[in-house]
Amino acid sequence: MSIGYQYIHIDGYEATFGKLDLGTTDTHILNFDVSFAVTDRWSVSLGIPLVRKRYHGPLPHDPDSIIPPADQENIDDGKFRTDFQDFHLGVNYRAWENANFSFSPFISYGTPSHDYPFFGNAAIGQNLWKLELGFDLVYVPTFSYWYFRFAPSYEFVEETLGVNINNVRVNAAAGYFVTDRVSLNAFVLAKQGKGLDFPEDFPPPRNDEFWFNHDRMARHNYVNLGLGLEWQVDPMYHVSLSWMTMVHAEQTHIMQDTITMGLSKAF
């Protein structure tokens, strides 16, 4: 079982012409996850995040501006809103492992926990189902305190108004064991996918169903870099801390800083 806290600060949107001063959003997330080892090789996991988010800025999204008015509350009013986002179900198979390598294919499915609002800078998610296929490769050199991880995946996403936003994701890291229980790491998270561009794919007056769904159809590509600390307190408890920032943004909200803390307990 694990619980994680994450804080995300976003400032602006990277459009085709550069940064759009859209305003800022602050997001607080509590991630709840349970993982169960069915056998020595197979494991399953289930999780859901609780998201608390607020928008401040000059360009709020008003559902009443859509023609006809959209059946959704206005979530860009400067107030914090809290709600559960998407259920995540994953299956992992440890296909191969020796002293230096481990190779584990995985599949993960996410679906909205309920019909939450998606139109607005303060939206907690896209309200779409997602299916991710990938593998996790870990390499530990002989007689070394280093380890390396490479986990690429392909994500299928529910289409909106016929627009395909499927994407490739990469999670890679290099770590060093300072002691038997403490390690430091540097990591990269990247996403490159299909989708639409602002402003050319969303011409004025931007008040129809197409604009109402624009956040579900944009590409949202990025490259994030981060630093992390892992501490295996004892055989039962594991603590993690990381910081991350966005170094490349393409048709997505610009993340300035993300702080993540996690606590896991084994049974």
Task: Give the structure's gist in a few sentences.
Helix content is 1%, strand content 60%.
Task: Describe the structure in your own words.
By secondary structure, the chain is mostly beta strands. The chain has one domain: Porin (Beta Barrel), CATH 2.40.160. It contains one helix and 14 strands. A hairpin with a 3-residue loop joins strand 6 and strand 7. The chain is elongated, with a radius of gyration of 20 Å. The protein starts with a strand and ends with a strand. The mean pLDDT is 97.
Write the layout of secondary structure elements.
Elements: E1 2-15, E2 18-37, E3 42-56, E4 81-84, E5 86-93, E6 96-97, E7 101-112, E8 130-139, E9 146-157, E10 167-177, E11 182-193, H1 209-212, E12 221-232, E13 237-250, E14 252-265
Antiparallel strand pairs: 1-2, 1-14, 2-3, 3-4, 3-5, 5-7, 6-7, 7-8, 8-9, 9-10, 10-11, 11-12, 12-13, 13-14
Number of helices: 1
* Annotated CATH architecture: Beta Barrel
User: Which sequence of strands runs across the widest sheet?
Assistant: 1-2-3-5-7-8-9-10-11-12-13-14
Could you tell me the radius of gyration in angstroms? 20 Å
Percentage of residues in DSSP E strands: over 45%
In sequence order, what are the helices and strands, one letter per element? Answer: EEEEEEEEEEEHEEE
The CATH H-level superfamily is monomeric porin ompg
Q: What is the C-level CATH assignment?
A: Mainly Beta
Protein name: Transporter
Pfam family, one: Phenol_MetA_deg
